[in-house]
Amino acid sequence: MTVFAAASLQPAFDKIAAQLYVDATFNYAGTQTLAAQLAQGAEADVFASADKTHMKTLLDAGLIAGAPQVFAHNRLEIAVANGNPKGIHSLADLARPGLVVVLADPSVPAGKYAQQALAKANVTVHPASLEPQVTAVLSKVALGEADAGIVYVSDVVTSQKVQGVPIPDSQNVVADYPIAALKNAQHNSNAEAFIAFVLAPDGQSILKAAGFEPA
Amino acid sequence: MALAGLGLLLFLLPLASLVVRAPWGQVGQELLAPETATALGLSIFCSVTATAIALVLGIPLAFVLSRTAGTLRRVLRALTTLPMVLPPVVGGVALLLAFGRRGLLGGPLYQLFGVQIPFTTTAAVIAETFVAMPFLVIAIEGGLRALDQRYEEAARALGASSWKVFARVTLPLLRPAIFSGAVLCWARALGEFGATITFAGNLPGRTQTVPLAVYIALESKPEGAIVLSLVLVAVSLAILIGLRDRWLGEP
Fold first, then answer.
1. Complex-level ipTM
2. What domains does chain B contain, in order, with CATH numbers?
3. What percentage of chain B carries pLDDT values higher than 70?
4. Looking at the partner chain, which of A127, A130, A145 has a beta carbon nearest the beta carbon of B100?
């Protein structure tokens, strides 16, 4: 069975696969990359997206079997180096001159959400780079090359090298993660079992431990 | 013949597909988009600069390689050609660890002078030089080994200084090797993706060269990506064909 999953899901889904004892291959990448691959005919059994937009694109293209179900939510957080050496406490601090801020590209869900959050906070940042997936933002902060980046809460929870600065609800964006089986799935029963597990209490508690909010 | 045809097909089919699938109605509009011009300009600037640096550093390196022998030569050669076989993304990570803010060289640079290399156009040029210079070194080293050393000896016997021998005899004899090495190096630099996006990041106007712009556009607007790819193919072909005729005098 092949699962195409948003890059941010990797820590949680690796644990779920271990518990489920199912022989699954995971393709983790930016949601927009996965959607493009699936639209071009890539074979997969399950698609777990970091936004509803890309799921809807595939749904409209007739590639999804049944109705997608939202299985988790995620929020944004500012990732900074452990100890927060630059003293970053809010989105407004990201506009400080001399600060190296990295965001995900606006074509990536995390990048789109980051733009929305910055707009809500009325903050203009000049990013040093627009990374092709949210995990690349995290690694630039973890490597010390960037002072701050906007990532998901779940990314911060599963990384030992960064800490999170919370973004208040009034400025934050809630990301919905929908999951669905694909029409051309070769392993229908495994796909259904995987989706059922993700939605069941066991799967939900793994997701919660990885920093997601339950559906 | 059949195998040669198959080989050619392997190159031509994907290129032909780009042409067939191109949104010809929107080509003008995509070409005139400011992002396209920005990415193309940056790509040309970075690849030409990388080639110039590779020439300055690579010619002496090729000389050293061609004048050494035995184990030393094998080790030097392996080290020089490593970037050719290394996945470019790994090269990018290695560059971060060397020139990043916490890197071996980048760390002191940042601490002492506040210089930050990652996420700058300089980083994009370094990434392209790192990946592309081996092509130039190998081509020139091959040219040096094939060189008939009697010309140099004759010049020396006639009283020319070593610099004069190098400038007036060796370099002119090497011209075809230097040229083909530089073209290979430039072409590799122009197409560079993995090391650039890892080490230099992706920001339009600063580090987003055409290959990066194609990658990002592929997912948000595939038509734009195809047009940009075609532009890159056209520019590369034009320069490769044009320069070849001009410099080597081939039909």
1. 0.81
2. 46-207 (1.10.3720.10)
3. 96
4. A145
Distance from CA of B196 to the nearest CA of A (A): 12
In chain A, the residue whose alpha carbon lies closest to the alpha carbon of B100 is A145
* Cα B218 from Cα B233, distance rounded (Å): 16
Amino acid residing at B69: A
Rama region for B129: left / alpha / beta (φ>0; ψ in -120 to 50; rest): alpha
Q: What percent of chain A has pLDDT over 90?
A: 83
What is the average per-residue pLDDT within A184-198? 91
By CA distance, what is A38's nearest residue in B? B219
Please check the confidence at residue B249 and state whether its pLDDT lies above 60.
no
> Greater confidence, B250 or A160?
A160
CA distance A55 to chain B (A): 14
- Chain A CB within 8 Å of residue B102 CB: yes
**Longest CA–CA separation in chain A, Å:** 54
Please give the residue of chain B at the shortest CA–CA distance from A30: B219
pTM tops 0.90, yes or no: no
Indicate the burial class of B70 (C-beta count within 10 angstroms; 0-12, 13-18, 19 or more): exposed
- CA distance, residue B64 to nearest chain A CA (Å): 35
Residue A73 has pLDDT above 70, yes or no: yes
The 3-class secondary structure across chain B, one letter per residue, is CHHHHHHHHHHHHHHHHHHHHCCHHHHHHHHHCHHHHHHHHHHHHHHHHHHHHHHHHHHHHHHHHHHCCHHHHHHHHHHHHHHHHCCHHHHHHHHHHHHCCCCCCHHHHHHHHCCCCCCCHHHHHHHHHHHHHHHHHHHHHHHHHHCCHHHHHHHHHCCCCHHHHHHHHHHHHHHHHHHHHHHHHHHHHHCCCHHHHHHCCCCCCCCCCHHHHHHHHHHHCHHHHHHHHHHHHHHHHHHHHHHHHHHHCCC
Is there a contact between B203 and A130 if contact means CB atoms under 8 Å apart? yes
Query: How confident is residue B223, by pLDDT bands cut at 50, 70 and 90?
Result: confident
Is pLDDT above 90 for A131? yes
A interface test, pick of B206, B209, B219 with most A CB neighbours within 10 Å: B219
Chain B nearest CA to A131, separation (Å): 6
**Is-contact A39 A182, C-beta < 8 A?**
no
| Domains located in chain A, CATH noted | 2-73+176-214 (3.40.190.10), 74-166 (3.40.190.10)
d(C-alpha A37, C-alpha B57), whole Å: 41
